Task: inverse folding
C-alpha cells in the first residue's frame, strides 16, 4: 500500500468519503444478495454464478481497503490559501512544449489521484517535480529516457 500524503480539496475528500460509504453499504449488500442467491442454486463446487459473485466481493473489498488507506493519508488543502503565481499541488498549469510548439494543460495532483486521461499528473512525476514552485514564464527542463523536453509555463490557475 502507498504511504505518502495525499493532497485533496475538501470537495474531493467529501466525494471519496461518500464513495466509501456507498461501497460499504449498498455495494456490499448487493454482492451479499448475489452470493446468497447463487448459494441457493446448489453445489458450490460447480457453481459459476457463486464463483463470480465471490470474485466480485473480493474486488470490492480490495477497493474498499485501498480507499480507506488513501483516506487515512489525506491532507486537506485550500486552493485559496496557495500562492496564485506559483505552481503547486491541485493547480492547473498551461505549458508550451518548446520543441513541438504544442500547448498542454493539466492539473498537478497527488500520485494516488493521477490520471493521464483526465489530464491529472502526479507531483512526483518527472514533469510534476520540475514544475513545482515555478512561475509563469519559467522553463522546466524534464529529462526523459534519451531526451530532454523543455516546457515554458504560460498560465497557472486554481
Result:
Amino acid at each position: 500500500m502507498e504511504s505518502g500524503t495525499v493532497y485533496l480539496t475538501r470537495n474531493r475528500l467529501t466525494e471519496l468519503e461518500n464513495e466509501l460509504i456507498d461501497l460499504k453499504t449498498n455495494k456490499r449488500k448487493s454482492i451479499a444478495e448475489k452470493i446468497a442467491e447463487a448459494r441457493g442454486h446448489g453445489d458450490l463446487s460447480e457453481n459459476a454464478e457463486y464463483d463470480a459473485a465471490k470474485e466480485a466481493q473480493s474486488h470490492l473489498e480490495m477497493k474498499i481497503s485501498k480507499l480507506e488507506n488513501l483516506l487515512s493519508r489525506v491532507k486537506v488543502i485550500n486552493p485559496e490559501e496557495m500562492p496564485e503565481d506559483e505552481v503547486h499541488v491541485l493547480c492547473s498549469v498551461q505549458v508550451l512544449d518548446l520543441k513541438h510548439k504544442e500547448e498542454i494543460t493539466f492539473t498537478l495532483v497527488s500520485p494516488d489521484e493521477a490520471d493521464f486521461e483526465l489530464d491529472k499528473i502526479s507531483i512526483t512525476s518527472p514533469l510534476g517535480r520540475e514544475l513545482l514552485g515555478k512561475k509563469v514564464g519559467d522553463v522546466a527542463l524534464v529529462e526523459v529516457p534519451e531526451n530532454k523536453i523543455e516546457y515554458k509555463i504560460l498560465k497557472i490557475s486554481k
